[in-house]
Structure formats: C-alpha cells, structure tokens
C-alpha cells in the first residue's frame, strides 16, 4: 500500500463515516458526499497517471460530470426540503418513521 | 407533470438499467445506477407534499452513498488487482465492500432502514417501480459478483433479511410499509441461495416481481393504503378483493399458488447442499411473514357479512383505470405453480 | 518534492476530517475547498496537469460556488466551528483513528513514486491531455451518455424545485 493509496482511502472512509454517523444539516451530508466524490476523482486520476493509460484518463472527467449531476440533484432536494419542512435539519425529516 | 418530461424520465430509467445490464466494466455499471437514481427522483417527488419530498431525500442519500461505495470498491480493486471487469473482481475486501453497497441499494437487512420509510412516502405506482424495476440493475451486479463474495456474509445478509422482514411487518397497519418488509424478506430468500444456485435467485426475483406488481396494482385499484380501508374493499370490487387475498397468500408462499414455487425449490436446494439448519431457520422465518399476510386476508375477506362489519362503507365511484397489466400479473402471481417443471427447464 | 507531496497528502486527510467532523456547513465547505485545492496539488505533482486543471476549474470554480450560495441560504445564526466542543471531540477521534490506521499500515508501506519523470516517453502531448481528445474521438458513446445525463439532470432539478405555491408556510 503506497502512501497515496492510503490517503485517498482514508479520505473516502472519513467522508463515508461523516455521512453515516452524525449530520445535523442536509447540506453537510451533501458536502460529505462531495468529499467522497473528490477522493474518488483523485483515486481514478492517480490510477491512470501511474499506469499511463491514455484511454482511462477520460474516466475521471466522466466521474466529475456524474458527480456534478448528483450534487445538483442534491441541492434541488435541499431546496424542496426547505420548502416543505421549513428547514434543512435532518432531524426534521421524521414524518415517515415507523 | 408534463408528458414529455415523463417520457424523458421513464426512458432514462430504462437506459440506466440497460446500461448496467450491458456493462462488463464497473464504471459503466456505476453510471447506469446513477442514471437510475437520478431519473426516479422527480417521479417520487411528483406530488410535492412533505412526505414525498422527505422520502425522495432519504432515497437519494442512501442511493448516492451506495453508488459511491461501489465505485470506491471497484477503484480499490483496480489499484490492487488491476482489474475493472465486473465478474473478475476477486479481492476479498473489495467484494465484501461491493456486496455491502449493493445490499444497501436494494435494502437487505442490516441496511434496510430506509426502505419502509421511503416506500411509505410514495404513491402506489412509484412504489411499484421502486420495488420492482429499481431492483433489477443491482441484482444484475449481485449475480455477477456472487461467486467471489464471502459465503458467510451472504448467509448473514439472507437470514437477517428474512427475519427482519417478518418481524418488522408484524406491527404495521400501513400497507406500503408491509409491502416494504415483504420485499426485505423476499430479497433475503434470494440472497440465501445465491451462491449455490443463481438461477433460483433469478426465478425467485421474477416471481416476486409478478406478485408485487399484482399487489400494488390491486391496492391502487382500490385506492387503499391502510388496513382499515382495505377491510371495506369488498364493497367496491368483490372479485378483486378475493384475488388480492389470493395474491397475498401467494406472497406468503402457500402451496397451490405461485409463491410456493421459489420457496420450495430454495428449501430443496439448501437441503441438497447439506444445510438443513439454514433451511429450517428460513422456513420458520417465513411463518413470521405469513402472519401479516394472513392478517391482511382476514381484514379483507373474513370480516364480510354475515359477521358484523366495523368499518363504514365508502362511496363507490366508477373505476376508469386500465386493468390489463393487473389481470396479467394476477394470473401469473396466482397460478404459475403447475408450470414449475417447464420454468426450471427453461432456466437451467 | 517528497516533503511537499507528503504535506499535500496529509492536507487531503485533514481537510476531509474537517468536513466529516460535523461543523456548520460554512466551515465544512471550507474544509472541502482545502481538500480540493490540495487534491489539485497532488494530481499536478503526479504529472497530471490537465486533470488537475479540470479539478480546479470545474470542482472549485463551479460546484463550490453553488455550495457557498446554498450555505448562505440554509445557515444557522450561530454556526459551529471546529472550536466547538462536540466538533473538536469528533475531530480528535477521527484523527486518532487515522493515525492508528496509518501506524497499522506502517510496516507494509513501500515507497511509491511521487513524481513522474517527464522523459519516460517522448510524447507530443501528455497522457491525460490526450485522454480528452480520446473521449471526443473514440469514446463517443460515453460522451453521449454523459451529455444525456446532464440534460436529464436539468429536467430533474426543474421538476424537483417546482411547486412554488405548494408545500407548507415558508419565509422565502
């Protein structure tokens, strides 16, 4: 395991833990998702750079396009949640609990 | 919603699942899953009431997390093994991670908490899409990576799912939540037999899709989402109420109906593989599920006259829904058991 | 160069800890900016100047402006920074976890290469720059799919944020 491998793995796991364990704002959850996507972008680009495979260096760009789509859908949901629930606190999303 | 927008969204749902089906590369499979998730979001939040938006938000968060985990695992696999192919993923850490992420995506037991809440916030047609079509793409990936996944992980996921699906549904009065727990239990049955006989998983998935389609469409026909309104369904459409109770018993897996076929074959396969304890445990856990299906049947058909009825009779309006798909899926969901040898010959 | 790259890698992890330790969204966005900037440095150090530029322009330039805007919309009156009690506890726990994990891996670490030699192959264009050209020439299907997804996202966003008159009472 190289130090680069270790650091982006750690970055991804940190983002995942932050998303999973404690969020007060929906926006913070979206930021954690973006952090996970950022570490994936770095991982994919470093993989192509290390192996010098030209055809794979399109993969990080496609990933970035998709993560932009995901982020904008998340922000649209943030707006919709702020409209219906009045706030973006995740603890207010409790209408459907068993 | 504008019909053009609906057309774009529905075709993107098809595109996403087709991409995941057709891909042998993890990146393309991930893209298909993302397209699927993005395309169903506006369909879920169609009504814009708070519960729909909340369900959409929860669905988006879980699905985005699961997709990111899938891509992370495949990238790690590429770093370690240098492989991007789906069916060549062989490193134990990455296969475990991918299986966990896919279990989160379809709602298997320790990762199932989002499913009842999300399904409760949707209307019945979108709930039908969510519990049938959206499961296909993750299942295509699961079946491809299954030979390399840790055996005890799959067994744990399957057994936990059947039990939690049974237990969770016991205390519910909301039909969509009951359907969500029934989905969890059925997915558990599919996961149990995944490594020994993947064709049985496929068979169980197909029959589950028929039965769920029939049930959701029948609930939509009666416009019921609670047990109390279900108990007066016989005044509106008596024949459909009878057929709905038969479909529910088929979901529970009683013998002359379709739902018995996958359970029977899965139990037979497990005993063939010298796993009698597992077979016994999941057979017992099916009883838990059967209890709430039976309670629904009781509320629906066994409380009609001559016994006194507690619920007030609703207003009867003329029904204008198209029932072609409902008729087909109900026939398939109730009377497919005699075709078991043919089906097996087709699948094997 | 090795020291600089180690600093960048540590900066990536620290930035993600700052995002994950649940501060107010203002500060989480700041942590994400730090991570993204440091990530640009890592990619540039490995010789991927074009990918680094894309990350800088699209990620920092586009996405984080939007996030800053939404953070300003959805903010609380007293935002909680990293000095806050719960946040600092989470940060300490996460940093300890990272250090322990790093210590467990310490024996197994081997020195990867930090900087690509520029003269490994005498190429006219670098690998990552020609990757973009590759996407336009041979990767047509992927390009079409990405364009379709971007169009789809436009519709998704428009449909999700509709309903001005619907919903409950709100201030905006």
From TrEMBL, chain A:
One of its GO terms (biological process) is ATP synthesis coupled electron transport. It is a multi-pass membrane protein. It holds the Pfam family Oxidored_q2. It comes from the Eukaryota. One of its GO terms (molecular function) is NADH dehydrogenase (ubiquinone) activity. GO terms for cellular component: mitochondrial inner membrane; NADH dehydrogenase complex; respiratory chain complex; transmembrane transporter complex. The chain crosses the membrane at residues 6-22, 29-49, 61-82. It catalyses: a ubiquinone + NADH + 5 H(+)(in) = a ubiquinol + NAD(+) + 4 H(+)(out). Keywords: Electron transport, Membrane, Mitochondrion, Mitochondrion inner membrane, NAD, Respiratory chain, Translocase, Transmembrane, Transmembrane helix, Transport, Ubiquinone. InterPro entries: NADH_UbQ_OxRdtase_chain4L/K, NUOK/Mnh_C1-like. The keyword Kinase does not apply. The keyword NAD applies. It is found in: Mitochondrion inner membrane; Mitochondrion membrane. Belongs to the complex I subunit 4L family. Core subunit of the mitochondrial membrane respiratory chain NADH dehydrogenase (Complex I) which catalyzes electron transfer from NADH through the respiratory chain, using ubiquinone as an electron acceptor. Part of the enzyme membrane arm which is embedded in the lipid bilayer and involved in proton translocation. This is NADH-ubiquinone oxidoreductase chain 4L. The lineage of its organism: Eukaryota, Metazoa, Chordata, Craniata, Vertebrata. The gene is ND4L.
UniProtKB/TrEMBL annotation, chain B:
It is a multi-pass membrane protein. It catalyses: a ubiquinone + NADH + 5 H(+)(in) = a ubiquinol + NAD(+) + 4 H(+)(out). It is an enzyme of class 7 (translocase). It comes from the Eukaryota. Keywords: Electron transport, Membrane, Mitochondrion, Mitochondrion inner membrane, NAD, Respiratory chain, Translocase, Transmembrane, Transmembrane helix, Transport, Ubiquinone. GO terms for cellular component: mitochondrial inner membrane. It is found in: Mitochondrion inner membrane. Residues 23-288 form the NADH:quinone oxidoreductase/Mrp antiporter transmembrane domain. One of its GO terms (biological process) is mitochondrial electron transport, NADH to ubiquinone. The chain crosses the membrane at residues 6-28, 59-81, 93-115, 152-171, 178-196, 202-221, 233-254, 274-294, 324-347. Its main location: mitochondrion. Its EC number is 7.1.1.2. Belongs to the complex I subunit 2 family. PANTHER family: NADH-UBIQUINONE OXIDOREDUCTASE CHAIN 2 (PTHR46552:SF1). Core subunit of the mitochondrial membrane respiratory chain NADH dehydrogenase (Complex I) which catalyzes electron transfer from NADH through the respiratory chain, using ubiquinone as an electron acceptor. Essential for the catalytic activity and assembly of complex I. This is NADH-ubiquinone oxidoreductase chain 2. It comes from Denticeps clupeoides.
From TrEMBL, chain C:
Keywords: Electron transport, Membrane, Mitochondrion, NAD, Respiratory chain, Signal, Translocase, Transmembrane, Transmembrane helix, Transport, Ubiquinone. Residues 1-20 form the signal peptide. It holds the Pfam family Oxidored_q3. It is found in: Mitochondrion membrane. One of its GO terms (cellular component) is mitochondrial membrane. Its EC number is 7.1.1.2. This is NADH-ubiquinone oxidoreductase chain 6. The gene is ND6.
């Amino acid at each position: 395991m190289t130090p680069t491998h270790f650091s982006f793995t750690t970055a991804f796991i940190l983002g995942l833990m932050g998303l999973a364990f404690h969020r007060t704002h929906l926006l913070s959850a979206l930021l954690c998702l973006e952090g996970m996507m950022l570490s994936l972008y770095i991982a994919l680009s470093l993989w192509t750079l290390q192996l010098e495979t030209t055809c794979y260096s399109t993969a990080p760009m496609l990933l970035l396009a998709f993560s932009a789509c995901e982020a904008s859908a998340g922000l649209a949901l943030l707006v919709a949640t702020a409209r219906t629930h009045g706030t973006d606190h995740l603890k207010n999303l409790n209408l459907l609990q068993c | 919603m504008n019909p053009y927008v609906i057309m774009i969204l529905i075709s993107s749902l098809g595109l996403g699942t087709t991409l995941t089906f057709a891909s042998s590369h993890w990146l393309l499979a991930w893209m298909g899953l993302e397209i699927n998730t993005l395309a169903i979001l506006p369909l879920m939040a169609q009504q814009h009431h708070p519960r729909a938006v909340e369900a959409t938000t929860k669905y988006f968060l879980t699905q985005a997390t699961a997709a990111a985990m899938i891509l992370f695992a495949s990238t790690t696999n590429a770093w370690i093994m240098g492989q991007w192919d789906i069916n060549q993923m062989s490193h134990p850490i990455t296969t475990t991670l991918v299986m966990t992420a896919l279990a989160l995506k379809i709602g298997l037991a320790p990762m199932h908490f989002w499913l009842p809440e999300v399904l409760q916030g949707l209307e019945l047609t979108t709930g039908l899409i969510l519990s049938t079509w959206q499961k296909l793409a993750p299942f295509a990936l699961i079946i491809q990576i299954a030979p390399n996944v840790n055996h005890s992980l799959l067994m744990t996921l399957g057994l936990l799912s059947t039990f939690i699906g049974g237990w969770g549904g016991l205390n519910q009065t909301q039909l969509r939540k009951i359907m969500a727990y029934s989905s969890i239990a059925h997915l558990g049955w599919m996961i149990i037999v995944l490594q020994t006989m993947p064709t049985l998983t496929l068979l169980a998935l197909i029959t589950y899709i028929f039965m769920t389609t029939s049930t959701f469409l029948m609930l939509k026909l009666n416009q019921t989402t609670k047990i109390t309104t279900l108990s007066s369904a016989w005044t509106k459409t008596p024949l459909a109420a009878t057929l709905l109770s038969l479909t529910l018993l088929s979901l529970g897996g009683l013998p002359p109906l379709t739902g018995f076929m996958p359970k029977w074959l899965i139990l037979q396969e497990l005993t063939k593989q010298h796993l009698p304890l597992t077979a016994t445990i999941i057979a017992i856990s099916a009883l838990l599920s059967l209890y709430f299906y039976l309670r629904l049947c009781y509320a629906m058909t066994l409380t009609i006259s001559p016994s006194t009825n507690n619920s007030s009779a609703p207003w009867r309006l003329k029904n204008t829904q198209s029932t072609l798909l409902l008729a087909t899926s109900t026939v398939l969901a109730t009377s497919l058991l005699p075709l078991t040898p043919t089906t097996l010959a087709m699948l094997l | 160069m090795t020291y600089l790259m180690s600093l960048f890698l540590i900066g990536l992890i620290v930035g993600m800890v700052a995002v994950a330790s649940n501060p107010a969204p203002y500060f989480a966005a700041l942590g994400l900016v730090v991570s993204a900037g440091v990530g640009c440095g890592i990619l540039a150090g490995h010789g991927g100047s074009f990918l680094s530029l894309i990350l800088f322009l699209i990620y920092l330039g586009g996405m984080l402006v939007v996030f800053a805007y939404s953070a300003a919309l959805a903010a609380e009156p007293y935002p909680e920074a990293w000095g806050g009690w719960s946040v600092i506890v989470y940060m300490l726990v996460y940093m300890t976890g990272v250090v322990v994990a790093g210590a467990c891996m310490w024996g197994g670490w081997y020195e990867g290469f930090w900087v690509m030699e520029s003269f490994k192959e005498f190429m006219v264009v670098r690998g990552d720059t020609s990757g973009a050209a590759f996407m336009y020439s041979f990767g047509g299907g992927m390009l079409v799919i990405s364009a379709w997804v971007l169009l789809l996202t436009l519709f998704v966003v428009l449909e999700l944020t509709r309903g001005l008159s619907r919903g409950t009472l709100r201030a905006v």
